[in-house]
């Protein structure tokens, strides 16, 4: 169904024409922001399936609303405090003259989702400093149509899963007709991306070119594979679960309508269930954005959209695994180890 050309693809969401990415983070505070800017015209939507989401202007993305596309998507740590990051991105985009024109004023459309990374050991005592606004401004300023870092960077700087430090991942692919799909994800899930606490990823069936270690699935299949690992909870602990969230964007260069982009978001969201166990829990804020940059003509039929959505789900699963594989542990006492700390590679 899909193929990739290593000579032209970097296996990042910036392989999709019209997408640029910028990161900003603070190591001492173990948090950060990623801003993804999108050229107009585009169509954008999102799906929210987690039980504890946080976002900004998500209602605009309903196909019934009048705004068709966006100028940027912000993926941020910081829980509700991180919502300030969109303001910093807005300031940069307005200065660049990007946005819609209303009554002679330029109004950028910036949507956002947040991840809870407040309990990872970093110094969160920023007081009345506009900390996340500044991070959003910095990330938008450096956003570029170029390769970008993965792992403990940007919005994934402080991210964790149940049993490992993780971060931000990305992946891309090209369909047989040349349509490109990319995904970027901040992996901060309540559950785990690895099978039975071992080195093997739930997303292994979708891996390409050993992008997260090339280990495949475990053989023999471990008896404890069905065990569910949850953040902040051990087999003997009854402490409250830690809030969590996986937030992501999938993008394609196809020309889609806003309702079609919503369908793409729904199908891409399946990538969370392919890469994480469990997904969409009560304490997760799982949110997946979808953007179509309209750089390529599109065969407007359900079959083509179904293939595109299937590829987007696979791509997001791979991005999630890469976000775990590329992460590094935080420099704090008691911090979770990274995948590389625990398993090498």
Please tell me about this protein's structure.
The chain is of the alpha+beta class and 345 residues long. The protein contains 5 helices and 13 strands. It has a 6-stranded mixed β-sheet, covered by helices on one side. It has a 5-stranded mixed β-sheet with strand order 2-3-6-9-5. The model is unreliable at 1-6 (pLDDT under 50).
Oligomer: single chain
Spatial shape = globular
- Give me the count of strands: 13
Low-confidence runs (pLDDT<50, min 5 residues)? 1-6
| SSE class | alpha+beta
Strand order of the largest sheet: 1-10-11-12-13-4
Distance, first to last CA: 30 Å
Q: Could you tell me the strand content as a percent range? A: 15-25%
How large, in whole angstroms, is the Cα Rg? 19 Å
The helical percent reads 10-25%
| H-E string | EEEEEEHEEEHEEEHEHH
Mean pLDDT comes to 93
The main β sheet shows up as: 6 strands, mixed
Number of helices: 5
Q: Would you kindly provide a brief summary of this structure?
A:
The chain is of the alpha+beta class.
Per-chain topology:
Elements: E1 2-3, E2 19-26, E3 31-38, E4 43-48, E5 55-56, E6 72-76, H1 85-95, E7 100-102, E8 105-107, E9 110-114, H2 131-142, E10 168-175, E11 180-188, E12 245-254, H3 258-275, E13 287-296, H4 302-325, H5 339-343
Helix pairs in contact: 1-2, 3-4
